[in-house]
Design brief:
about 120 residues, 4 helices, about 0% strand, globular, mainly alpha, single chain
Length: about 120
């Protein structure tokens, strides 16, 4: 018995966000003394792996798990914040802040409102 499309979607989005955060912010910590063009090109290479996970996540989520586009977007944002906070703490050496918890609570509200009607079924 395989993983449900909804679980596949979430796991692929989580994995893609590790690459996204490194592409977007890792260069600020690890390439700060290199020209911006070098950082941009290397980040673009890292971002390729994000897209190789993000695109199938959205396709599975929309076509098989029947998430709406709004639900996929809110999921992406919540996962992005959930991955960014530990990433910023571990990789970027940023301190954890109460504001992150408050932002997560607001995102939780967004999830509630987007998903309160459930996941659409095919043809609805």
């Amino acid at each position: 018995m395989g993983m449900s499309p909804a679980v596949q979607t979430v796991l692929l989005l989580i994995a893609s966000n590790f690459f996204m955060n490194y592409a977007w912010y890792g260069h600020l910590k690890h390439l700060e003394h290199r020209p911006w063009l070098v950082a941009a090109l290397l980040s673009w290479g890292v971002a390729l792996f994000e897209y190789l996970l993000q695109v199938p996540a959205n396709r599975i989520g929309a076509q098989q798990a029947h998430f709406s586009f709004g639900q996929l977007k809110i999921m992406q944002e919540v996962i992005s914040l959930s991955v960014f906070v530990p990433f910023s703490y571990v990789v970027l050496k940023e301190s954890l802040k109460l504001d992150y918890v408050l932002a997560a609570a607001c995102m939780g509200g967004a999830v509630f409102f987007v998903f309160r009607g459930g996941v659409p079924t095919p043809g609805s």
